[in-house]
Design brief:
The chain is mainly alpha-helical. It is 72% helix and 0% strand. The chain is built from twelve helices and no strands.
Length: 337
C-alpha cells in the first residue's frame, strides 16, 4: 500500500457513551421487583392453598353453624367425618377455583405491598444515614399491617364467593353452584357493594394478622441468623440480614408466622365467615346484618368459645401452609434473583 493510500484511510469515530439516567434504572428495577413479587407470591399462594383447603372447608362449616339450632358438628373431626361421608374428597375441595385465584392475589399482594411499604418507609421516614440498613422489627410489623390492609380490599369479594361455595349443600343451596352463579346472585340482590359484605372482618383479620405474619417470620429468621453466626463477630447487621437461611429454617419461621397470623384475630374471621355464609337474599329490616350485630348475637349465643370455633384446625393447617408459602417464595427469589 502506498503512502498516499494510507493517508486516505478514515478511522471510524468513537461512539460517545450515552449517559445513564439513575431514575430510569431505579424505575426499571422497581418494576422488575414488582413483577417478581407477583409471580413468586402467586405461585407460593396457590401451592399453600392446595395444602390447606380441605381444612379451610371444615373451618368455614364449623364457623357458619346456625345460632338458634343444635350444633350440626361436635368438632373438627366430626365435621371432617360427616363431610367426607356425604360428599367425599371432591366435597372438601368444592369451590377451590375461587380460593386458588384468591390465594394468588392475596399472597402476591401481601409480598408486593409489604415491599412497597418498606420502600415508602425508608424513602420518607428514615434518616439518610440509616437508609441503607435493615428496618427495625417494629417498622417491619407496621409494613406488614399496611400490606394486610391493602390486601383486604382485594380479598373480601373472593372470600365471599369461597364461603358461599364451602357451606353444606343442605342449607343455602340444594345443589352445587358455580362461582359465576354466586357472583350473579350477589350482584342481583345487593349490587356491586354487596361483594364487600364482611369487609370490616377481613380488614381486622388481614391488618392484624399480616402484621403478626411478617413480624413473626422476620423475628424468627433474625434469631436463627444470629444463632448461626454466634461465633462470628465481624458480620455486619446488613450482611447478616441478607444472609439466606436453609430451607428447613425458612419453613420453621413460616410455620411460626402462620400460627401467629391465625390465632390472635380469629374472632374477626369467625364473624366474617358467618356474614358471608348467610343466605345471599337474607335481609334484616331492609339491610343485611352488620359486623357488630353478628358479633353480638354470636357472643350471646355461644360466648368466647363460639368466636374461636374451628380455631384449632385453622392453626394446625396454617403452620404447614405458611411454611411452604415462605419456602417457595424465598426459593424462587434465590433461583431467579
Amino acid at each position: 500500500m502506498t503512502e498516499s493510500a494510507e493517508r486516505q484511510i478514515i478511522l471510524p469515530k468513537a461512539i460517545p457513551e450515552t449517559p445513564t439516567n439513575p431514575s430510569l434504572l431505579l424505575k426499571s428495577s422497581q418494576t422488575t421487583e414488582a413483577l417478581k413479587d407477583i409471580a413468586f407470591g402467586s405461585t407460593a399462594g396457590i401451592i399453600g392453598k392446595f395444602i390447606e383447603y380441605p381444612f379451610d372447608t371444615v373451618k368455614v362449616r364449623l364457623q357458619s353453624q346456625p345460632e338458634n339450632l343444635p350444633l350440626r358438628y361436635s368438632g373438627p373431626l366430626d365435621c371432617f367425618r360427616q363431610s367426607f361421608r356425604s360428599e367425599g374428597i371432591p366435597g372438601l375441595y368444592r369451590g377451590i377455583s375461587a380460593p386458588l385465584f384468591g390465594a394468588a392475589i392475596e399472597t402476591s399482594s401481601l409480598f408486593f405491598s409489604y415491599r412497597v411499604a418498606q420502600n415508602v418507609l425508608q424513602g420518607f421516614f428514615i434518616a439518610n444515614d440509616k437508609k441503607d440498613g435493615p428496618l427495625s422489627l417494629s417498622a417491619l410489623v407496621a409494613c406488614g399491617g399496611a400490606s394486610g390492609a391493602f390486601t383486604s380490599i382485594l380479598l373480601t369479594p373472593i372470600e365471599l364467593v369461597k364461603c358461599q361455595m364451602q357451606i353444606p349443600l343442605s342449607t343455602t343451596y340444594q345443589r352445587a353452584v358455580s362461582p359465576l352463579a354466586i357472583v350473579a346472585s350477589v350482584y342481583r340482590h345487593h349490587g356491586l357493594l354487596g361483594f364487600w359484605h364482611g369487609q370490616l372482618g377481613t380488614l381486622i383479620r388481614e391488618t392484624g394478622g399480616s402484621a403478626a405474619w411478617f413480624g413473626s417470620y422476620e423475628s424468627v429468621s433474625a434469631l436463627l441468623r444470629v444463632h448461626a453466626n454466634s461465633n462470628s463477630s465481624s458480620t455486619s447487621e446488613q450482611a447478616l440480614h441478607a444472609q439466606p437461611l436453609p430451607i428447613w429454617q425458612q419453613m420453621l419461621a413460616g410455620a411460626t408466622a402462620g400460627v401467629s397470623y391465625n390465632f390472635v384475630f380469629y374472632p374477626a374471621d369467625t364473624i366474617k365467615s358467618r356474614m358471608q355464609t348467610e343466605d345471599v337474599s337474607a335481609v334484616l329490616n331492609g339491610r343485611r346484618k352488620t359486623f357488630w350485630a353478628v358479633g353480638k348475637a354470636l357472643w350471646r349465643q355461644q360466648g368466647l368459645r363460639g368466636l374461636y370455633r374451628g380455631c384449632g384446625i385453622t392453626v394446625a393447617r396454617s403452620a404447614p401452609s405458611s411454611a411452604f408459602i415462605f419456602a417457595v417464595y424465598e426459593g424462587l427469589k434465590g433461583w431467579f434473583g
